[in-house]
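Troubleshooting log. The previous structure file for this entry was overwritten by mistake, so regenerating from the original sequence record. Sequence copied from the archived sheet and checked twice against the printout by T.R.
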Amino acid sequence: MNRKGDGEEMGKLLRQAVENRRIELINKLIYFQVFKKEDQHLFELSLTDLENEYKKIQSYVHPHDDMGSIQWVNRK
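Regenerated output below.
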């Protein structure tokens, strides 16, 4: 493959990584009942906006309430 093809492949991988992170953040925000930021739906926001919104949510929730945190199960 030539250098141009390598760059195109890297660009494709980067776009996919960004989209995967956006989906992850959207799902986490939905978990916290956040569906919009001002008048924009989450899917309309950039990755940076989603990251900032998620950080804002994290700043005022208990650290162990987060989705994906350790949950103790009392087994008998």
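The beta strands are 36-37, 40-41. Archived copy saved in two places this time.
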